[in-house]
């Protein structure tokens, strides 16, 4: 069927692309190599499986760029956002989900759609014709990676994405830890108490840093280099950059008051966030690591409240592959050398679940329009979606291209609003108001 859209990869981007295209009346085949061909990071064959974290980050659509991206995707009928909202967990001002229920929900909805079918096959080459979206993510198979390099004549860039450990809740000492979201953020009591906090005094922090620096690390494979993405640094790499780095990052002791010792200010605080709806699992926020498993358990049990911690999963690290998109892709996410092929998701050089899903949403709509014989107007660069696609397909410097989260630095300035920290709230509100109006207009024009 020449009018069928083939999507390679059933992660966040591939799942969203399939939903958008099928909703537009296009027949879709999702080619997913799992579970027949697995990866070290994935545990199931479900679509949209969450690997690194269970958080979609901030849900503030007035003062945060990723929250604005949530808003745009909801307005466009996003399946990923619908399932995230359905399986939401308390997380202060963030949007966190029960990861298993979320991916099962996405899988069920897609497989019930009459225009979508799934083939558990691994695609190892770039097709010569048809309509295709490659959304193979950061764990693109070696065979397909080689095919992409052979086609483009360019080396795919790589960085290392680290996975944070998950702790069984009933092994946490609540005489030392307490529930509180930073600055008590959230509209409900559940939201305001969404995080578990473990305080450290100066001596405990210094001993923890010493242990991080001396712990045995997993060696890199031959030919790999440690080109970390700054948004997902292993904690030991952060510690190597300076002993105070973690205190100004994931262990910052601000916006929190220890009810066990309200008059004592902690030197550093480790936060854990609920990882499932039952509340039986908590992940250690920002604690991605490349320490060996035995060393991880020893080091993390130095954290007050985690002395007897039992781990449902220890941390890990894996290679992420992505295209030099400013060189290889056009403004509609098409491979310049083979315009019947689009790319979407993390393989394009966006970073994060939401950003990946947004590029899947856009690719699905663009492909559906092309199959129907018409084109969509360009997405305004003033929107979160438009700012991202503009950045990866031409706004970024190709020579130094690295994975990028959505942020207001990618948006065109709003005229008449002052810069600097003092004008930030008005400026961000200006960005989001403009984006919502322009995105609503684009959706109307796109049909």
UniProtKB/TrEMBL annotation:
Ranges for domain MnmG N-terminal: 5-374
Cellular compartments annotated: Cytoplasm
This enzyme's EC code(s): 2.1.1.74
GO cellular component terms listed in the entry, alphabetical order: cytosol
Primary role: Catalyzes the folate-dependent formation of 5-methyl-uridine at position 54 (M-5-U54) in all tRNAs.
Entry protein name: Methylenetetrahydrofolate--tRNA-(uracil-5-)-methyltransferase TrmFO
UniProt keyword terms in alphabetical order: Cytoplasm, FAD, Flavoprotein, Methyltransferase, NAD, NADP, Transferase, tRNA processing
Annotated family: Belongs to the MnmG family. TrmFO subfamily.
Catalyzed reactions: uridine(54) in tRNA + (6R)-5,10-methylene-5,6,7,8-tetrahydrofolate + NADH + H(+) = 5-methyluridine(54) in tRNA + (6S)-5,6,7,8-tetrahydrofolate + NAD(+); uridine(54) in tRNA + (6R)-5,10-methylene-5,6,7,8-tetrahydrofolate + NADPH + H(+) = 5-methyluridine(54) in tRNA + (6S)-5,6,7,8-tetrahydrofolate + NADP(+)
Cofactor(s) recorded in Swiss-Prot or TrEMBL: FAD
GO biological process, one term: tRNA wobble uridine modification
UniProt binding sites for FAD: 9-14
Transmembrane annotation, as ranges: none
């Amino acid at each position: 069927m020449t009018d069928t859209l083939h999507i390679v990869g059933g992660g966040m981007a591939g799942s969203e692309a399939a939903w958008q295209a099928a909703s537009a009346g296009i027949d879709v085949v999702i080619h997913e190599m799992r579970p027949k061909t697995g990866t070290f990071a994935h545990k199931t064959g479900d679509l949209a499986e969450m690997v690194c974290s269970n958080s979609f980050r901030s849900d503030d659509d007035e003062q945060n760029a990723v929250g604005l991206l949530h808003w745009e995707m909801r307005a466009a009928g996003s399946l990923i956002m619908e399932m995230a909202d359905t399986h939401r967990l308390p997380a202060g001002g963030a949007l966190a989900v029960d990861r298993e229920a979320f991916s099962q929900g996405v899988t069920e909805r897609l497989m019930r759609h009459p225009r979508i079918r799934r083939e558990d096959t691994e695609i190892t080459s770039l097709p010569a014709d048809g309509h295709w979206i490659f959304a193979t993510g950061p764990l693109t198979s070696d065979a397909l990676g080689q095919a992409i390099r052979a086609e483009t004549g360019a080396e795919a860039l790589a960085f290392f994405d680290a996975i944070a450990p998950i702790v069984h809740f009933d092994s946490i000492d609540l005489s030392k830890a307490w529930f509180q979201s930073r600055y008590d953020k959230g509209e409900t009591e559940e939201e305001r108490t969404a995080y578990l906090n473990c305080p450290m005094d100066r001596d405990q922090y210094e001993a923890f840093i010493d242990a991080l620096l001396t712990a045995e690390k997993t060696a890199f494979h031959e030919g790999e280099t440690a080109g970390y993405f700054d948004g997902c640094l292993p904690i030991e790499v952060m510690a190597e950059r300076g002993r105070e780095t973690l205190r100004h990052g994931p262990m910052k002791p601000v916006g929190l008051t220890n009810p066990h010792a309200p008059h004592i200010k902690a030197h550093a605080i480790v936060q854990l966030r609920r990882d499932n709806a039952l509340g039986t699992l908590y992940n250690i926020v920002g604690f991605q690591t490349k320490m060996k498993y035995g060393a991880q358990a020893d080091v993390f049990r130095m954290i007050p409240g985690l002395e007897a911690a039992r781990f449902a999963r220890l941390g890990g690290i894996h290679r992420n592959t992505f295209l030099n998109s400013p060189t290889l892709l056009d403004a509609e996410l098409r491979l310049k050398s083979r315009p019947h092929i689009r790319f979407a998701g993390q393989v394009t050089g966006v970073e994060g679940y939401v950003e990946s899903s947004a590029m899947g949403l856009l690719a699905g709509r663009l492909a559906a329009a092309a199959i129907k014989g018409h084109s969509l107007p360009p997405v305004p660069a003033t929107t979160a979606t438009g700012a991202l696609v503009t950045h990866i397909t031409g706004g970024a410097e190709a020579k130094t291209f690295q994975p990028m989260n959505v942020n207001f630095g990618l948006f065109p300035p709003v005229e008449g609003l002052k810069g600097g920290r003092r004008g930030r709230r008005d400026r961000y509100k200006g960005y989001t108001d403009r984006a919502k109006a322009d995105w609503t207009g684009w959706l109307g024009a796109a049909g």
